[in-house]
Write a structure and sequence with these properties.
With 571 residues, this protein is an all-alpha fold. Helix content is 77%, strand content 0%. Helix 6 packs antiparallel against helix 7 (134-160) and helix 13 packs across helix 16 (315-325). It starts with 8 loop residues before the first helix and ends in a 15-residue tail after the last helix.
Length: 571
Amino acid sequence: MQLGVEPNLIEIAGLLVGGLALFLFALELMTEALKAIAGSRLQALLGTLAANRFRGVLAGAGITALLNSSTITTVLLIGFVSAGLMTLQQSIPLVMGANIGSTLTAQIIAFNISAAAPFLLAGGFLMHSFAKSEVLREVGRALLGMGMLFLGIEFMGDATRPLRSYEPFISAMQNMRNPWLGIVAGAVFTAVVQSSAATLAIVITLGSQGLIPLEAGIALILGANVGTCGTALLASIGKASEAVQVALVHLIFNLLGVLFLVFVIPQFADFIRHISPSAPELTGAARSAAEMPRQAANAHTIFSVLSTTILIWFTGPIGRLAERLAPSTHNKWQSSSQPQYLDETLVHMPALAISRVQLELTVLGQQVLKQVQHSVGSVVENNRQDLATLVEEDKSIDALSTSILTYIGSLSEGVHTDEEGKQLVDLTRISTCLDSIREATISHVLARSQRRMSPGANNEHLRSNEISGFAATVMRQFELAVKAIVHPVPETVKSIVEAKLEIEAQAEIARRHTMSVLQLRNQADAVSYRFTSDMIEHLNEIARLSRAIAKACLSLNALPMTEPSKDQTRS
């Protein structure tokens, strides 16, 4: 463009917005493909490598680089911490590693291999359309995304090229030398588009046109690191305190890193120039355009590595600060109908969503367990007010059960592997068993007790060792089954399945004791006997459904199990 010629700002805006939209869509396409390829292995990898802080950093960096999304890594960590499979302290190195892994996209962009975009698009289309293997089709989808990514960058480059001689824009970019202005701009833009990679792509694009100096680019990069925390913070709203704590760890870590560097940006820029490839044969804006993309990518990577190197030794204070800002809340009886762990953003990633369903089913199981325990206690004490309260609380538990089944239905409608399909069936079985226990508790115990038991009824026989011991055994079996949904210890799960004969023997002892105590000499004895028999059968049904839950856990987690004896094959 000649000097003095006004650029077509509408055309520039259209190209820039269109290129950004294509870039973001390409990132999503790549991420979805990579999740489908590697998703089922991610949780095992994270759990294995989180044993110490340095392996945790490597795990976080590797998984984030593979999936091109630090948000997904954060979601995984929230699930682990919430389930008690990992402490908040163990998750902090993984968050730090995720920051390092997220710099890979900028490094790829800086290589400027846009000339290969047509080949990536063509090859990706052919693989995605005609490959017989599901893995190859997903690889093709990832290549399609990469081709679109470079095409989007090309559009943004074409949009910004005319601005090289547009004085108002040049003056605005010169003002970006104020680091705080650049940090705020980078943070706001990243929070809006929910992608730090998009901010880095724009920084590299502007730098490749010689439109911004490295110092301004570094300020925008620092802001992008703060803005990228917005997605996890938004996702944690309304979730358990563990989710908020992990999101806060991400924010605290990035804020501290920015504070370390903001006052030495010029010196840091000189260091980056010294270690990055140079083009001494060029001068002025041409040299800046040739060198800036690689310098910006290197600045992003070195900033993340440097922050991690310094802060890795302070995981304890960072974790305690997050816990203080978002204290854990544990309610003994929480009957909220709102799911705590189900995340709609994971609906298209069954490998990760399944673990969230397990967590939510554990919450449901704990609520049903409390409901059963309270119902038995209320019947023994003949407390009608408690019975009425339990019936009311049942509405919230029922709503949560419905939400879980609806979420499983959404997962089953999407794309998933055969193995994931089997896991969804097992999760449905567990949910159905819990719901059956809930319904039986209300209909067979609460409703019947309200109808049959008079205020003056004598329930002392329910306190006997035979009946209370049988009830305690069933409650223990049910509690172990609920814990096995997320923490499936093979020996414990097998013991639940194999406890059928013991449960039946205790039930028979309870029946005989009831007959010996209530000799059916009058109508009151007959009413008490029928009620107690119903209660014993209800407890027997809970034990049977607990075994069904345990069997589903065995199948869900592919745990080995010895062949049961012939007497134990019937549920």
